[in-house]
Amino acid sequence: MKIVIVIDLIDNLTNGSVMTAKRFADGLRARGHSVKIVAIGADGKDDVCVKERYVPLLTEVSAKNQVKYGKFDREKIKAAFEGADLVHFIFPFKFEKKCKLLADEMGIPTTAAFHVQPEDITFNIHMEKLGFLNNFIYGMFRRRFYKRFRRIHCPSRFIADQLDSHGYKAELYVISNGYDKDFRPAGTKPENGKFEVVMVGRLAPEKKQKILISAVAKSEFKDKIHLTLLGNGPCKKKLQKQAKKLNVDCSFDFLPKDELIKKLQSSDLYVHASTVEIEAIACLEAIACGLVPVISNSSLSATPQFALDERSLFENDNVDELAKKMDYWLKNKEERLKAGGIYAAFAKNFSLDNSLQLAERMFIDEIYDCLSERGEKPKEELLPEGAELQIQQN
């Protein structure tokens, strides 16, 4: 297939949706498809780089969360769309809306993904307690963008249920964003001087790293724990001050893939304290490396799907319960190592290769429906020679 992926930006690897888009593009190329990316910062051979659009006030606020908005360039993007079998959209913003209208005008089949959870927005403008505002944003996204699509990629059953409950009528394809097969357990686990506890994610209000820092301060192993928070974001300075005030041994970093894998493989426990998550690939990558997780059991998060039993769940925002769950795993080494192997095996259900095949199925379904409406058939095979769809449903 000739696929075009449209996303506002592709040059910020601290943004989870950007990483997902890049991972999908690389994976589809590896499977023999031709893939173009249209985005700010796109620099691949066939990619199309667009300029940034300045939006008063919004640009400044979004920049703190590593988000930029693309500027629509009709002629440049039309040239990128020429000959495409399908255009896939990652975000629901103005840039994508204009590109969608152009794709429709050109008669090109389209699909969309749902990666922007309204709660991510309301938490970052400190209005998370206004439930009606989240409902309004779900409705706005539907009316302004997603109602134009027949098929939507949902990274988790949780978000698919949210869309269904908010009146989305498209066919919802539940497809994990998938983790890279390079994330796997190490041959041998090192003996650390301290218990190495890690969390990966944007340093933002809804990710709740502050809950984790407070839990470490209450742990019976406080003086034996080294906490690492991997990520960037607007809450970094506040979190640094909190860790210092509570005398928690805490490091902040952002690691490239190879170093991230080594860090996860050498750690003892993974905590995901976030209240809001569409999926949380970071947690999936951690368990794929053999780490036992302790996950916030939030009603606004899909991440509890990765917990195999109650020992890996804690009540959202409950510092005391998180501390107790951490202490259980840290004091029971044999049980922790055994469970780590079970988690690593479980993670294989969410492999990137399986996700790519599910995405191919969605793309092909849309292409065939569009061609059928026009009384046409594909001019060529949509899968590379020798490729088959051997899909394992999550």
Protein described:
This protein is an alpha/beta fold. It folds into two domains: 2-178 and 352-373, Glycogen Phosphorylase B (Rossmann fold), CATH 3.40.50; 195-349, Glycogen Phosphorylase B (Rossmann fold, 3-Layer(aba) Sandwich), CATH 3.40.50.2000. It has helices spanning 16-30, 58-63, 74-81, 94-105, 118-124, 131-144, 157-165, 209-218, 236-245, 257-266, 281-288, 319-331, 333-347, 352-373, and strands at 2-9, 34-40, 48-49, 86-89, 110-113, 151-154, 171-174, 195-200, 225-230, 250-253, 269-272, 293-296, 313-314. The chain is globular.
**What gross morphology would you assign?**
globular
Number of strands: 13
CATH class label of the largest domain: Alpha Beta
Instruction: Find the CATH superfamily of the largest domain.
Output: Glycogen Phosphorylase B
Distance between the termini: 24 Å
Overall number of domains: 2
Number of helices: 14
The proportion of residues forming helix, as a percent range, comes to 40-55%
Largest sheet: 7 strands, parallel
Radius of gyration: 21 Å
